[in-house]
Amino acid sequence: MPTYAPNKMPTSVKKRYFELLRAGYKGAAAARVVGVSTSCGSLWFIDAGSMIVPDPGPISPRFLTQDERIAIADGLHAQQPVKQIAASIGRSFQTVYREIKRNAKTDGRYNPWWAHNQALLRRRRPKAERIRTSEPLRTLVPVKLTEKWSPQQIARHLAREYAHDAVMRACPETIYRALFAGLLGRRDVKLRTGRTRRKKQRRGVPTLNKIKNMTLIHQRPAEVNDRKTPGHWEGDLIIGRGQGSAIGTLVERTTRYVHLIHLPHGWKAPQVRNALITQTAHIPPQLRKTLTWDQGRELTLHEDIEALTGFRIYFCDPHSPWQRGTNENMNGLLRQYFPKGTDLSVHTASDLRNVARQLNHRPRIVLGDRTPAEVMQECLAGPLTR
Predict the structure, then answer these.
(1) What functional role does this protein have (predicted)?
(2) Which residues pair with 370 in a beta bridge?
């Protein structure tokens, strides 16, 4: 019988045992050095997966080390909360949650040496690129990209449609890398943003209190924030080359349904007022509750708009685009159709309707991969009160 029970030795002893194995010691020799029986060491070795994967050391600080995994295991054994364990090793609690979920053994136990071995095995390079080796993926992914699906939407689509076929899986990063490496074609296939990296977007906000009789966003009804009741919209303008043209954008907060406002005669306050009044008349009255806008001069005549549309208009604080974040997100999507620095006056009302139709029939993760058109139709079919 072994002199020591395999799970009752201090963690430091086990750590030294595995360090000796990685250094090339035989199991029996390593057990003698740390003062345990050969059978006890063998049980540790078997519990760790019966393998020792060479550890070149972390190639980036974002990777967990063996010592950090040992600290996680000790914390779990002591029944410490995950957030407390994360704080003790200087990591986010999300990192620790993912580590436990990903590298726990099949019986649910977290063995730090097993976990480290699994991480090292996954880190081994080179690995065959999934899309390079899969002809079906190289055929399907470009089709979705040309339909202006994002890599995230494509990845979720693959996971749903090919749930039992691991070969037909690709995470968003795999799709990005394949695209930038030219595996999906270089001419027709591209991201709908047309960019290879993020670029900050900011439009200046005029001075404070330039609009008379504004009602600020802090006075907006509380029901707007929970997104359970449709009929609350966010609006803005996207500006063309030389600030000579613009398109109005309206997004419904609950359904993410977008409606574009054609401004062929300019975007000063009278033109914007007239366009909003005439081009929102088709929206059912029960879906015209509130409209949140920034403090742009184009809405100086907001009182006229309220009187003739039924919208109650609320204004964001200066320099606070996050207060109408749904609209900011939609404006980013619209830039694939209306790039910055271009003349927006060349687009007809029919063009705007076609763009809005395409966006409203694109699945959104925030809607459970349903489309804004589907959610809006459900709202119209159900009971609505103004």
Answers:
(1) Required for the transposition of the insertion element.
(2) 364
In a domain, 212, yes or no: no
Strand partners, 292: 234, 314
Rounded Cα distance between 87 and 264, Å, is 57
Read off the amino acid at residue 251. Answer: V
Percentages helix, strand, coil for the chain (3-state, rounded to 5) are 50, 10, 45
Domain around 180: 129-199
Q: What does the alpha-carbon distance between residue 306 and residue 213 come to, in Å, rounded to a whole number?
A: 12
| Residue 212 tokens, joined | 């008379």
Judge if 153 and 230 occupy the same domain. Answer: no
d(CA 348, CA 263): 9
pTM above 0.90, yes or no: no
Whether the Cβ atoms of residue 22 and residue 55 lie closer than 8 Å to each other: yes
Name the β-bridge partners of 119: none
Q: What is the pLDDT of residues 166-177, one digit of tens each?
A: 888 888 888 888
* pLDDT tens, residue by residue, 42-90: 888 888 877 777 777 767 788 898 889 989 988 998 899 999 999 999 9
Distance of alpha carbon 309 from alpha carbon 261, whole angstroms: 14
E-strand stretches of the chain = 232-239, 246-252, 258-262, 290-293, 312-315
Q: How far apart are CA 262 and CA 240, in angstroms?
A: 13
Residues in the chain: 386
Residue 279 in tokens = 């081009």
CB atoms under 10 Å from CB of 46, counted, come to 10
Of the candidates 249, 255, 250, the residue with the CA atom closest to the CA atom of residue 229: 255
Domain tally, the chain: 3
Clarify whether residues 228 and 377 are in a common domain: yes
- The pair phi, psi for residue 292, each rounded to 5°, is -105, 130
Domain of 258: which CATH number?
A: 3.30.420.10
Interacting residues of 285 by C-beta distance below 8 A, sequence separation 6+: 310, 386
Amino acid present at 346: V
Q: Which residue's entry shows tokens 């960019």? A: 195
